[in-house]
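Is adenosine-5'-triphosphate placement plausible here? Inputs below.
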Amino acid sequence: MPFAKDVEIEFCDRESAIRQIEGFAERGTRHPVVVFGPEGCGKTAWLKQATELLREIGFEAIYVDPMRKDFTAHTDVKEVAERLAEAASEVVGMAQLKLATLAIDAVKWLVSKWKKRRVAVLVDDAFQAIGLDKAAMYVKALLGLVEYPPEGYECIVAIATTSEGLSRREIGRHRWAELTPMWNMSRRGFEELYEKLPEPKPRLEDAWRLTGGNPEMLARLYELKWDVDAVIVRLIRAKELTRDFVKRWRPHLERVVEDPQSLWEEDFPEGFREELIAKNLIVYNMYERDPRFWIDEPPPERDLELGIGEDVAWQSPLHREAVKRVLERS
Ligand SMILES: Nc1ncnc2c1ncn2[C@@H]1O[C@H](COP(=O)(O)OP(=O)(O)OP(=O)(O)O)[C@@H](O)[C@H]1O
Ligand SMILES: [Mg+2]
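Reply from A.M.:
I modeled the complex. Tokens:
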């Protein structure tokens, strides 16, 4: 698996998340499972691993990432792979939508036409490609597969991921999906990943405090030769943390930097909260930390150093650092 520009790292840890896939494979998903979590927490890596695992245990497994026009068709039905390849090569704009819809059609064909009995469809970053307004409809279509599957099937697994806080809300309004959160890596899992990185590298403790276990942040730090400032500056740009943004919300931002849970407890303007969600800076409304409701291990209840509150958390400590930096500089 490519980790950073010149480094390949094998998938590591996430043991509970892998066991959860085995559970889905036994029972099927009763609703489509929509996994949300901080950007870069490892959703894609996990979903790709799931695709391989499902294939190994005898599923026809279709993975699509419409945004990046990436797909894997683990099926001996050539027609399905061909149709996906064809869709991926369409002109920009069309390919994304086509791949997303084809993934659903592929499952229908595999079951009804090719009499496959165990089929999995895994859609990565589902809603960025098809648009927020169509997110709910898309999940409904996935639900149609699971709820009223073509005859003769034994087990269907449908999983989609999203890192967009707003799409999560759009989907949550309906009862069509099993919204399931996933967090950054656990301390143990992160350590395993860190150990695989070549020297020179900072102390494990420092890497953990900076990333909070977010593997993408670790990859960026690595690529920028552990220049923490450079990573922060890029985040500030990517998130458009402008002078104007800070001017509008300064006292509120200061509160949330200090303790993200304040966003839950105190009366902030709605526009402020929405902006933090839309910019993917925080995860708003975290679920109880019962492992049954999470993919892999849930985060701690509260860890102010990592920016985690009971109901609201910074996506990673570096996300919080970016905001802190603009507050100090503006
Ligand atoms: N369990 C893991 N083992 C090894 N590397 C991992 C693991 N999880 C994630 N990574 C690496 O960390 C980086 C970020 O992971 P990934 O792209 O899966 O995150 P994501 O949640 O899909 O991000 P986004 O929100 O941007 O879609 C990638 O380089 C990936 O290869
Ligand atoms: Mg991803």
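Short version: The radius of gyration is 20 Å.
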